[in-house]
């Protein structure tokens, strides 16, 4: 679930006027609350509207003012995706899942330890990777023009939260409702949210907060959990259930006919979105009338996989016993569907590929260019290097310098995963393989242009070493732990002798990544090392705050006074820390 904001771009996807929701009129059999205005939908047999994908409930009068995007499309609308850092699994009381909007105390759930995003374990695959972006420094941008925006999160507000606009209570224990900025803590009703100032001042923490636009994070191939040395519960993707938000149950909606008649008139289907899902037996189920047309089956399959696209670009096939496929045809396509003994009918959702060309969106997120993305048409002869060159020209950069950049394939499925594409790789074939393997994954994969060279040094903090040793002794210990004869790092220091900790600097991301992986698994004198990757603080763009710090108030401790002093003694125009 995502709300309107600076990190959400509705132009990335054609979603219509309902914010991607698939609203249907429903008659409720028990008291229900509107997720937009928080008021009760009055009466025992009253009508409201429910999104069939994410369970968003609202009055008819609230339909035109909804600000929350459906969880089926929200993942594809994020401009700069940032992975969440998940806690251990548990039953979390008095909170709601941000995907299916149901209570988290009824199922095993997770919480992002950074931005308070709550999700059921079964809904985790559909979680929106929009964690707080803590490093947004842009080198060539005017420092006075850089503004900090709110990072709004829907629902799960603290008790007694007051709306910053109307000053009335805006929290709810009945449903996922209300908005809260994860930076400054301001809260508001969804109705009042658009009246808030878009700029964030960090609230009560403004005097001690280091703004994201003064920080950069060195590029590494490590996931965020490993960068921060956070070890949560790892869920095996091969055994985990497929995510699918819970539907409105029969208890919530009055049934129009008996269960027996529904069973007779309804067909349950297993739907696969590609070869990979069939191979791994990862599917989603959908119920459709036995007299459903091919178009109705196709539309139901698109909703189950949260694909918001032109339906005419897709078609349905059935899986035969020999592994081959056969297109479903009207007038009654389910009449001739093959059903394995004792199992449900199995069908494929497929994309109508054009063998000659395809349109690819290329994003410039890390380049911080004015446009979010550019659309490039690729053909059989188009290579990755050609796509990079054309994208650079669209971004207003020199296309002849394509060899200084990489094309990064970023998958938002189950977090944020990256892969560097080979410059000689055929782009059309790459896109077709993604579609054939998994349509769901294809729709959450993006291509970003990124500079090959990282202009920043890579600093790594290492702690839990023996105290009060000489610098040369620390170097010998590190070389032994890294299994290297020559120093792979460019510098060592500052060293906190009384605490047995130090900072080592590398000039390449590959060397830093290899060192972090070895040191995080290493022990010395039966003590496990503390290893953290450090960000770069751009002192020049926030010198006012940093130079006002009175170092005498801070004890000489690792990561506090001593390391801050080493930052402040550097030139304000340099990248430090």
TrEMBL record:
EC number assigned by the record: 2.7.1.107
CDD domains xrefs: C1_DGKtheta_typeV_rpt1, C1_DGKtheta_typeV_rpt2, C1_DGKtheta_typeV_rpt3, RA1_DAGK-theta, RRM_SF
Composition-biased stretches (Polar residues): 239-257
One term under GO cellular component: membrane
Domain RRM: 458-531
Every Phorbol-ester/DAG-type domain range: 20-70, 83-131, 149-200
GO terms of biological process kind: signal transduction
Pfam families, alphabetized: C1_1, RA, RBD_DGKtheta
Region (Disordered): 239-265
Residues of the Ras-associating domain: 265-354, 356-454
PROSITE patterns xref list: RA, RRM, ZF_DAG_PE_1, ZF_DAG_PE_2
UniProt keywords, alphabetically: ATP-binding, Kinase, Metal-binding, Nucleotide-binding, Repeat, RNA-binding, Transferase, Zinc, Zinc-finger
Keyword Kinase in record: yes
InterPro entries: C1-like_sf (IPR046349), DAG/PE-bd (IPR020454), DGK (IPR037607), DGKtheta_RBD (IPR056392), PKC_DAG/PE (IPR002219), RA_dom (IPR000159), RBD_domain_sf (IPR035979), RRM_dom (IPR000504)
GO molecular function ontology, one term from the record: ATP-dependent diacylglycerol kinase activity
Family: Belongs to the eukaryotic diacylglycerol kinase family.
Name recorded for this polypeptide: diacylglycerol kinase (ATP)
Organism: Steinernema glaseri
């Amino acid at each position: 679930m995502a709300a309107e904001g600076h990190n959400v771009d509705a132009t990335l996807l054609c979603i219509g006027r309902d914010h991607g929701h698939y609203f249907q009129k429903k008659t409720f059999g028990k008291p229900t609350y509107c997720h937009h205005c928080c008021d009760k939908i009055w009466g025992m047999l009253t009508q409201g509207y429910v999104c069939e994908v994410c369970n968003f409930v609202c009055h008819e009068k609230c339909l035109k003012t909804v600000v929350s995007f459906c969880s089926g499309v929200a993942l594809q609308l994020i401009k700069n995706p940032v992975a969440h850092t998940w806690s251990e699994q548990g039953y979390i009381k008095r909170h709601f899942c941000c995907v299916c909007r149901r209570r988290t105390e009824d199922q095993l759930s997770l919480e992002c330890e950074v931005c308070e995003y709550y999700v059921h374990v079964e809904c985790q695959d559909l979680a929106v990777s929009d964690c707080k972006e803590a490093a947004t420094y842009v080198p060539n941008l005017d420092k006075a023009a850089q503004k900090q925006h709110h990072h709004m999160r829907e629902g799960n507000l603290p008790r007694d939260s007051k709306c910053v606009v109307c000053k009335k209570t805006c929290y709810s224990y009945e449903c996922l409702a209300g908005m809260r900025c994860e930076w400054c803590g301001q809260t508001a009703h969804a109705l009042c949210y658009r009246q808030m100032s878009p700029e964030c001042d960090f609230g009560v923490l403004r005097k001690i907060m280091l703004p994201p636009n003064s920080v950069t994070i060195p590029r590494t191939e490590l996931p965020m959990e490993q960068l921060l040395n956070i070890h949560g519960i790892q869920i095996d993707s091969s055994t985990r259930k497929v995510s699918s938000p819970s539907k409105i149950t029969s208890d919530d909606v009055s049934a129009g006919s008996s269960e027996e008649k529904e069973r007779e008139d309804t067909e349950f289907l297993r739907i696969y979105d590609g070869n990979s899902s069939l191979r791994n037996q990862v599917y989603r189920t959908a119920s459709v009338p036995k007299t459903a047309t091919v178009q109705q089956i196709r539309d139901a399959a698109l909703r189950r996989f949260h694909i918001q696209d032109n339906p005419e670009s897709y078609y349905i096939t059935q899986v035969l016993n020999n592994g081959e496929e056969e297109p479903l045809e009207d007038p009654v396509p389910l009449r001739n569907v093959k059903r394995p003994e004792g199992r449900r009918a199995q069908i494929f959702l497929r994309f109508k590929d054009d063998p000659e060309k395809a349109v690819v969106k290329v994003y410039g997120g890390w380049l911080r260019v004015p446009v979010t993305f550019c659309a490039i048409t690729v053909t059989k002869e188009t290579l990755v290097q050609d796509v990079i060159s054309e994208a650079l020209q669209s971004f207003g950069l020199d296309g002849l310098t394509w060899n200084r950049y990489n094309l990064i394939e970023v998958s938002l499925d189950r977090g944020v995963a990256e892969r560097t594409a080979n410059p000689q790789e055929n782009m059309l074939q790459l896109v077709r393989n993604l579609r054939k393997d998994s349509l769901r994954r294809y729709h959450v994969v993006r291509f970003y242009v990124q500079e090959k060279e990282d202009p920043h040094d890579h600093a790594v903090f290492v702690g839990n070493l023996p105290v009060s040793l000489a610098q040369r002794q620390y170097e010998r210990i590190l070389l032994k732990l890294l299994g290297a004869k020559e120093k792979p790092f460019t510098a060592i220091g500052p060293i906190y002798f009384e605490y047995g900790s130090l900072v080592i600097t590398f000039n390449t991301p590959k060397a830093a990544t290899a060192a972090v992986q070895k040191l995080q698994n290493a022990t010395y004198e039966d003590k496990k090392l503390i290893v953290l990757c450090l960000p770069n603080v751009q002192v020049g763009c926030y010198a006012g705050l940093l130079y006002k710090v009175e170092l005498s108030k801070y004890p000489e401790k690792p990561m506090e006074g001593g390391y801050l002093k080493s930052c402040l003694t550097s030139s304000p125009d340099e990248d430090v820390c």
